[in-house]
Amino acid sequence: MREALSFGLLMAAFMGFAVIGVPVFFAMGLASLVFVLFANGEVPLNVLASSMVQGIDSFAFLAIPFFFLAGELMNTGGITTRLLDFARSLVGHVRGGLSHVAILASMVFSGVSGSAVADASAIGASIIPAMKEQGYPPAYAAAVVAAASTMGPIIPPSIAFVVYALVTEVSVGRLFLAGAVPGLLMGAYLLVTASIVARRRDFPLSARASPRQALKALWRAGPALAMPVIILGGIMSGVTTSTEAGVAAVVYAIVVGKFVYRELTWASVWRIVRESMISSGLIMLTIAASGIFSWLVANMAIGESLAKGLLAMTDSRWAMLALINVVLLLWGLALEPAVALVTLVPVLVPIAAAYHIDLVHLGVVVVLNLMIGQLTPPSGVISYLTAQIAGAPLHEVFREAVPFTIALIGVLVLITFVPVLALGLPSLVFGK
Fold this sequence. Notes:
22 helices
């Protein structure tokens, strides 16, 4: 009871600061400071500084800025454009073809960026204006791109998986491979949904690409398509760590954008480096502040207390997974994925141990839940972004996203209760 009260007070302080507009990393730090000051000396003040440093003291965290940088270099260097042209040559001729193009291009782009926001901005900036020109409703164009971008942190590599791996101390490589099949299932479900919507609403058709045009698009996109293979091949073979794979992705994106496609300038590289470091820095600040938060949560032993209480209610692993999904979906509505990962996952780890839930499987379930939260109100960060690109009212984007949200929840249910879909590939490559 005391642990639950302490956890509730900590969360109340955090949410209170967040509601009045304090930046997330300051809100977490201030909430932790307030909690320590009112702990009557039970928690020493030097824990604040040491926990912040320890929160980011990991070589694997370097993967985050490198994957951010690689995604931005791809977008500016012409790689994204070639991926879109290739996707258009494959599915652009079917009814509602450009919505299929957006989904297919996001599947490929996800294999490099590892970020839903990067996917939404890169794909959306190119495909949404084209969809509007062909007569698609702006809100629908924004909703399709937003839904497709949720694959970014699921299909490997994934920045969210890197954060989860460091919080839970599980293998980044296993997590990356665990996201492959669920990511492809997300793409398949979204394509089917887009096809159904296109037929019902009689969306436009485009001319079919000739075999020669398709081969030409494949040839031009070849260097871009090779990028995910290089990244995953290096990690799976053990030649590179996830961080080294991120470095390789950056170098490859510069070489292709500068010397193959010749759309990248050294001035733009320097600009992209600055912007990517700022974006990555904000995430790292959040993770550093969460180091204090996570230490306090672990010190409360709230996870162990919850596990004991829940075991008294049910010993069913499946019932617990269903409950975790409900909690995560609600949590994802209010908080950004990075914040949700570092605040909630430490609580879930003891529960997973008590119910014999594989932490790799749990990681895929957690991240997919949080991505769905980024598509729906009130958080809906991805929908906010694509609505701005499309110039569409936000409430209309949320409404248009409903069929795609239902499709993603269908994938979530499937992944949750058929763990082999997430665990089969890592077990095959790394062994059990």
